[in-house]
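pinned: reference chain
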Amino acid sequence: MTTGIDRISFYTSRYCLDLKDLAAARGVDWNKYSIGIGQEIMGIPPPDEDIVTMAASAAKPIIDEVGVEGIDLVLFATESSIDQSKSAGLFVHGLLGLPSRCRVVELKQACYSGTIALRMAAMMVAASPTSKALVLCSDIARYDLGSPGEPTQGCGAVAMLVTAKPSLLTLDPEYGAHTEDVMDFWRPNYSEEAFVDGKYSTRIYLNSAAESWRQYAELTGRSLSDFARCCYHIPFTNMAAKAHDRLLKESGIREDRKEITAAQVGESLGYNRMTGNSYSASLYEGLACLLDTATESLDNKRIGFFSYGSGSVGEFFSGVVTPGYRDHLYTDRHQTLLESRTAVTVQQYEDIFNLSVPSDGWDYSFTEYQTGDFRLAGMQAHKRMYEAVS
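pinned: its structure tokens
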């Protein structure tokens, strides 16, 4: 039974900060951001935008096109959870008017959770081929002001419709995985900002990629030359390039690695460079970017994927692009969104950063900013109140 991604839709906030401005404000050489980590702009979510509104806005184009019939599973992947009990996906279920015969679960394992959501959705659809599953990956990457991780902040959501006989990508069954209990990145319940050991996390990411790839290669007999393109988890774009270079080196390739990496990975990095890290969504933001911007047709081509979640779990897997996939993309919508965002100043960014959802139990109404199709209207009796944007 073939299963995979039938539709993919990406969303990010309507506000952004040019990292040139941040570099100037922090007294940092701009090249440290643009060349060192490969980032140019980061998405800034306003106070009335959160993982629910972003996920719902990402999914809405899919629902508007194909409807809700047959969707009997929603898996919401995030590490920016808004409730210790209720799944963020249930808010989306209500906003989108999904069927009552629909199971909804939230999944967490750092940035890897989007991949296990996709794999689980594919298995559920394979068991019941007339059903459909909606996978939602939505996150806000947040670090302390002035910290080393600050320029990698960002936000975004990706919605994927998983079906039998998918229109975009059929998943291969084989995979390689590597799990290791480490503390390279974490966010305790009492902290709104994440903690990260940057150099250690980079080393763990690269080791996880190498171990996962070795397993996959042994299982399949495939080499990196069997992939037309590769997509990676993208905490920042140069991390994806480093990971592919590592796999090329592991495969015994000693020359032209920079050129090979640019050819196999480069087309997946453009959106992330303009939004910053979106955690669980970042790998699939890369896939959306690749499908939207590849200069040659990827019909029947195999794509390699490496997903990483700190703490840590890594997985290498693959899929084959469906012929005619370009007829089922939201390219214009994605690119219009990125081009039409409102730029904020560093002071405005810091003011937004220092605003937080109240936790004192009082009722609040949030000022209306520019958002997607949905917004967080306020809090009433400890309950988050969402509404559609007219």
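why pinned: The first strand starts at residue 3 and ends at 11. The longest helix spans residues 198-220.
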